[in-house]
C-alpha cells in the first residue's frame, strides 16, 4: 500500500512527448506541481503547448534538462517527488541502428531513472510506461498464449534487434525496471502497458508514430488498399488517466494492459470514412496479404517479409480486465478517439480533403 502526497511535486519524464503532454495536462488540471524532464528546455517552441496549459490551470510546471543516456540528469528533477512517471523512451518504427537508437536509450534511460529513484529518499512509487509490445512481438505469438490473448502474465519472447526492435527495446526496458525495483523496498513499481495510443494530444503539430499512423489512414497513403494489420487501440486521454490512477491508487501493483479495442487498420479506416465521408482519401478495399508481403519492404523498411507474414490478417486480442478492476478504468469508444484525433489534424491543416 503506497499513499502519495498530492502536494508533493510529480516527475514526468519525456515532457515533450505525445503521451506525456496529456498526462501533464491532466496533472496540471488537478492542481499538481509537475517536474517535467525534456531533452532541451531551450527549445521553447517545443514547450509552448505545455506553457499555455500551465498558464490556465491550477497546477504549475518546472522544466529540467535530461537525456536518457545521462546518469546524472534525473536526480535534480526528482528532488522532493514521491511519484515518478517515466514515459520517455524512443518510439520509432524504423531506425538505422536499433541497438544505439532504441535499445540503449530505452534500457539505459530506465536504469538511470530508477537509479536516481534509489538515491532520492522522497520517492515512493514509479509508474513506468511500458507497452503491449513488452507482452507480444507479433500477432502470430498470440495463438500460443494461454486463452489465445494478451494478459499481464505473458512476456514478449519473439522480438530481437533484427526483428521488431522497438518491441525488443520495450521488453528489455521493462525487465530491467522490475529487476531494479525488486532489489529494494522503499519504492514500488507499477507498469502501464498500452496498445497503440491514438486520440488528440495537447499539440496538433506533434510528431511521432501515433500521429504518423492516423495521418497515413487519411492522407491517401492507403487509398489503393488498406493493409489488414490487426492491433489494439486506446485513447491517449485514457492512458494518461491510467498513469495517474496507477500513481495514486495505494494498492496498485504489477503490470496493467491498457487496450480499449481489438481492432485494425481496416476497421479504423471504415470508422473514419463513415464519419468524414468521401472528401478525404481513405482506403476502401483491403490490400491482399501477398501484395503487402511483396511490396512492403520497398515502401517501408519496417515492413519486412517476416513482419508481414507474422502479423497481417492475424487477430489481435488483449484482455484489459485488470485495468478495469484494479484501476477502475473505463474506455472511450473507438469512434470518439479516431474522429476527434482526425478532426484535430484537419483543424491544424495537417490533412486536406480531396477538393
Ligand atoms: P513520443 O511522442 O515520441 O515521446 C517519446 C518521448 O521520449 C519524447 O519526449 C522524447 O523526447 C523522449 N525521448 C526519446 N529519446 C530520448 C532521449 N534519448 N533522452 C530523453 N528523452 C528522450 O512517443 P509517445 O507515443 O508519447 O510514447 C511515450 C511512451 O509511451 C514511450 O515509452 C512509448 O514506448 C510508450 N508507448 C507508446 C505507444 C503509442 O502508441 N504511442 C503505445 C505503447 C507505449 P523528444 O521530444 O526530445 O524527442
Molecular structure report:
It comes from Maricaulis maris (strain MCS10) (Caulobacter maris). Residues 10-247 form the NAD-dependent epimerase/dehydratase domain. Keywords: Oxidoreductase. This is NAD-dependent epimerase/dehydratase. The chain has one domain (10-347): 3-Layer(aba) Sandwich (Rossmann fold). The protein has twelve helices and twelve strands. It is 39% helix and 15% strand. The protein is α/β, with parallel strands linked by helices. The protein has helices at residues 18-29, 48-56, 74-78, 98-119, 165-182, 209-218, 236-248, 265-276, 289-299, 305-309, 321-326, 334-347, and strands at 10-13, 33-38, 60-65, 83-86, 125-129, 188-194, 196-198, 226-227, 230-235, 254-258, 261-264, 286-287. The strands form three sheets. The protein has a seven-stranded parallel sheet with strand order 3-2-1-4-5-6-10, sandwiched between helices. It has a three-stranded mixed sheet with strand order 7-9-11. Strands 8-12 form a two-stranded parallel sheet. Helix 4 runs parallel beside helix 5. The N and C termini lie far apart (58 Å). Helix 1 (18-29) links the parallel strand 1 and strand 2 (33-38). NADP nicotinamide-adenine-dinucleotide phosphate (NAP) binds at residues 14, 16-20, 39, 67-69, 87-91, 105, 129, 131, 170, 194, 196-197, 208-210.
Amino acid at each position: 500500500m503506497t499513499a502519495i502526497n498530492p502536494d508533493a511535486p510529480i516527475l514526468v519524464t519525456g515532457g515533450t512527448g505525445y503521451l506525456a503532454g496529456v498526462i501533464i495536462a491532466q496533472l496540471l488540471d488537478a492542481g499538481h506541481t509537475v517536474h517535467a524532464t525534456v531533452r532541451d528546455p531551450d527549445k521553447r517552441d517545443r514547450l509552448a503547448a505545455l506553457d499555455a496549459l500551465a498558464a490556465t490551470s491550477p497546477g504549475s510546471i518546472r522544466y529540467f534538462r535530461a537525456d536518457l543516456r545521462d546518469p546524472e540528469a534525473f536526480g535534480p528533477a526528482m528532488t522532493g517527488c514521491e511519484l515518478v512517471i517515466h514515459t520517455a523512451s524512443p518510439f520509432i518504427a524504423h531506425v538505422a541502428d536499433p541497438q544505439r537508437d532504441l535499445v540503449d536509450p530505452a534500457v539505459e534511460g530506465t536504469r538511470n531513472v530508477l537509479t536516481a529513484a534509489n538515491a532520492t529518499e522522497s520517492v515512493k512509487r514509479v509508474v513506468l510506461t511500458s507497452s503491449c509490445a513488452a507482452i507480444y512481438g507479433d500477432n502470430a505469438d498470440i495463438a500460443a498464449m494461454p486463452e489465445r490473448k494478451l494478459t499481464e502474465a505473458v512476456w514478449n519472447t519473439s522480438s530481437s534487434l533484427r526483428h521488431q526492435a522497438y518491441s525488443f527495446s520495450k521488453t528489455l526496458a521493462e525487465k530491467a525496471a522490475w529487476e531494479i525495483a525488486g532489489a529494494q523496498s522503499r519504492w514500488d513499481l507499477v507498469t502501464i502497458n498500452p496498445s497503440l495510443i491514438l486520440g488528440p494530444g495537447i499539440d496538433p503539430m506533434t510528431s511521432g508514430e501515433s500521429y504518423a499512423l492516423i495521418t497515413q489512414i487519411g492522407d491517401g497513403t492507403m487509398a489503393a488498399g488498406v493493409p489488414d494489420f490487426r492491433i489494439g487501440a486506446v485513447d491517449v486521454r485514457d492512458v494518461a488517466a491510467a498513469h495517474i490512477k496507477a500513481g495514486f491508487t495505494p494498492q496498485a501493483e504489477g503490470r496493467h494492459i491498457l487496450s480499449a479495442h481489438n481492432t485494425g487498420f481496416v476497421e479504423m479506416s471504415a470508422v473514419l470514412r463513415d464519419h468524414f465521408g468521401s472528401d478525404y482519401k481513405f482506403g476502401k478495399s483491403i490490400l491482399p496479404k501477398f501484395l503487402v508481403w511483396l511490396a512492403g519492404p520497398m515502401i517501408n523498411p519496417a515492413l519486412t517479409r517476416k513482419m508481414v507474414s507474422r502479423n497481417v490478417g492475424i487477430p489481435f486480442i488483449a484482455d484489459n480486465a485488470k485495468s478495469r478492476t484494479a484501476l477502475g478504468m473505463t474506455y472511450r469508444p473507438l469512434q470518439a478517439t479516431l474522429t476527434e484525433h482526425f478532426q484535430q489534424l484537419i483543424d491544424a491543416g495537417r490533412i486536406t480533403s480531396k477538393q
